[in-house]
Structures are given as C-alpha cells and as structure tokens.
Amino acid sequence: MPHGQGLEDLLADAEYRRTYQDEKLILEVTESISEAMKQADVSRAELAEALGKSRAFVTQILTGSRNLTLRTWAGALTALGFEARVSIARIAGIKRADFTYEMQPEVTPRIKSEIQCSAEFPNPPKRLRKNIAVAA
Amino acid sequence: MEFAADADGESETRAVFDSLVRHEKASLHVAMQRLADFGRLQNDERFRTVTGSGLWEFRKNQHRFLGGFLPARRFVIAAYERKKKWKLRPETIQRALRIMNALRKTKEEQCLTVKA
Predict the structure, then answer these.
(1) CB B46 to CB A30 under 8 A?
(2) What is the ipTM of this complex?
(3) What is the pLDDT of residues A25-35, one digit of tens each?
C-alpha cells in the first residue's frame, strides 16, 4: 500500500503528537469564538469594533495565525456574551512517561556563559546584569 | 476521511499532505479529525464550502485541500491547490468535481481512495 501510514499513525511520533495537541487547542479556541459569533449573530466587523481592534485582527484570530492570549480569548467571548470553560483530558493510549515536554531550559547556554563571565569579572557590564539576575 | 487515489493506489493529495511541514500537517489533521468526530466545523477560515460547486475545502495558510461528502458520512479529499490568488483556479475545482462524481458512481468497496 503506497500510503500505508494512516493519519492516526502519525501520532506515534512524540514530536508530531505535541504539535498536534498544540494545533488541537488552537482549533478548539478558534471554534469556540466562531460558535459564539454564530450564536450571537455577530459579524467579524462587529466583534472587531467591540474589541477596539481591526477586522484583520479578528481574521488573524480565526485563522490561528495570531498567537492568541488567554485575555484576548476571554475578552472576545465576553464581548459576545459567552464565557470560556477549560477542561483537561488524558490522551487515550499515551503513558505518562510519554508526556515529557521539552521545556525551555531555565538557564540558556548563552546566559550560562555570561554567568561564567561574571564570575571572572565581579563587576559585569550593565548589559549582562539583567540576564544574570534572571538566571539566578 | 479518505484521500482519492489512482488505479495504482497512489494518492496525489496524500503525497502533498505528507510533504507539508509538521505544524501545517498537524493543523490540517486536527481539522480533519474534528470533521470526522463532529461532522462539522464552525470556523470557515479552516473549512468552508467552495461557492457554487458543492465542494468543501480545508484551509491552512496557502494550502487548499478540496473534497466532498459521500454517502455513509464519508469525506474524500479529491484535489489540492496552493492558492496564490484570491480565487481558486477553475481547473482545480473541475478536477475535484470530476473525481467526486466518479467516486459517487462507484460502490464504496471499489472506491479508489486511501484511508486518512
């Protein structure tokens, strides 16, 4: 079979699965806004006006191209007369160990090297002080 | 969810899907799964009708996957276009319509598709 791998099989790859879950959340959020707009019978232009934003901003939200903040999501739903409800669910067939999400390291290699620098120079340049404080 | 295939079982639309970058692929995959689970999508930026053709399109950035519904709640992706202009090319719509019409005349077990 030339295309033996079904879409379901793509989820066996941990990296793909993480991206899939990111995209799933984006879709669910954009669907919630679309659903609320339909139920409230509000157009994109009207929602944009209620939010004090441009129509393009609303389109960017709906396409998922703009990284929507929780505040913007809540604000859009409130403007439409709705509220967001959040729930979590276990992903079927995935063991807890598979969830190891690669978090941003607390100290990046660049900051690490700058910390080492500061040890050599007790009075680091002002530019580096902020990073050192963050790392600490 | 299925991708239309040729007599050799090769699916051009599936090959395009496989060639997409991970986040685009996952985004389309999620939309397809939602259609399969709920039978509809509310957000027409992600899934909408192709005006006047009876076809539907999945959208992600410039990617357009055109398809249609078949009996027994089946959805087949029949054609693909990387959209560069405001409108879809008529040839792509005609191609999708031709494939969908052929599939509608074929018994389910004889349909040339690959499962998504």
Answers:
(1) yes
(2) 0.88
(3) 999 999 999 99
CA–CA gap between residue B5 and residue B77 (Å, rounded): 10
Q: Convert the pLDDT of each residue in A41-54 to its tens digit.
A: 999 999 999 999 99
Look at B31 and A62 and tell me if their CB atoms are within 8 Å: no
Instruction: Identify which of A26, A35, A64 has the shortest CB distance to residue B42.
Output: A35
Amino acid found at B99: I
Which residue in this structure is represented by tokens 């006006």?
A49
| Residues in chain B within 8 Å Cβ distance of A31 | 34, 41-43
Quick one: tokens of A42? 């509000």
The DSSP code for B90 is H
3-state secondary structure of A116: helix
Rounded distance between C-alpha atoms, residue A48 and residue A66, angstroms: 15
Q: How far is B39 from B45, CA to CA, in rounded Å?
A: 16
Question: B16 CA to chain A: closest CA distance, Å?
Answer: 12
Q: Which of B9, B41, B42 sits opposite A1 (nearest CB)?
A: B9
pLDDT range class, residue A110, cuts 50, 70, 90 = low
Cα separation, A86 vs A70, whole angstroms: 11
Q: Rounded to whole angstroms, how far apart are CA atoms B103 and A61?
A: 36
**pLDDT tens by residue, A86-102:** 999 988 777 665 555 55
Task: Count the alpha carbons within 13 Å of B106 in the hemisphere toward its beta carbon.
Answer: 13
Q: What is the pLDDT of residues A59-85, one digit of tens each?
A: 999 998 888 999 999 999 999 999 999
Interface test with chain B among A3, A11, A22, A73, by most B beta carbons within 10 Å: A3
